[in-house]
Amino acid sequence: MSSQKKQQKLQINPDQLKQLIEASLFVLGKTVSIKSLKESVLVNFSVTRVKIKAAIEELQQDYEGRGVELVSVAGGYRFQTIEALSPYLQPLWQEKAPKYSRATLETLAVIAYRQPVTRGDIEFVRGVAVSSQTIKSLTDRQWIKTVGHKEVPGRPALYATTTDFLAYFGLERLADLPPLTDTESLEALFSNVNSSSDSNEETGSEDTLNTEESTNE
Predict the structure, then answer these.
(1) Compositionally biased, Polar residues: which spans (predicted)?
(2) DSSP character string of 158-190
(3) What does DSSP say about strands 68-73 and 76-81: parallel, antiparallel, or unpaired?
(4) Is the pLDDT of residue 7 over 70?
(5) Which one of 41, 117, 164, 182 is CB 3.0 to 4.6 Å from 142, fit for a cystine?
């Protein structure tokens, strides 16, 4: 008989499961997938993905009609305040939100809708040069990442959006992006992002997304 016996899984009842999931989501304060829950706080319990999903759905019903809701976003779940309360909650945020130039948002939009793309692809679509600082800023913000290299001379990096991008903009998947022809939906998508008309980043003299951004999150 092997000296290393497989650890026996603990049992957990439905109420305890809901409590543990609820507490975990509050503590983490970010989007968490069922897989992540199962491999972390629930790793020692005998519980299936189906039961976890059922517990989450019950929690979603429990929070209906309240100031906080449990939403499905970016392949996971998170608690967030309901949109109707957003204007009244603004005074609670002491830190000033970072500003994003129009060029930065346009670069992000090109990557989101045409990914994976190279910097040259972005410049072709926008018709102007894209500064290295813009790419770095979006990467530091963890909205984009390098997913490979294009098999052409120089092997330029290919960029794509991340799950953090989906989570920030409240999207479950890329297919939920509004059509490019839907101007109102596109404006609504970026409405929660501070924008600036500053175009200095095109010349590389100054980028609106600067090193201060990482301290303003």
Answers:
(1) 206-217
(2) EEEE-HHHHHHTT-SSGGGSPPTT-HHHHHHHT
(3) antiparallel
(4) no
(5) 164
**How far is Cα 211 from Cα 47, in angstroms, rounded to an integer?**
44
- What backbone torsions phi and psi does residue 216 show, to the nearest 5 degrees? -100, 5
Angle of the 119-126 helix axis to the 102-114 helix axis, nearest 10: 110
What confidence tens digit (pLDDT) does each residue in 110-137 have? 899 989 999 999 998 888 899 999 999 8
Q: What letter represents residue 107's amino acid? A: T
Length of the chain: 217
Return all residues near 39 (Cβ < 8 A) that are at least 6 apart. Answer: none
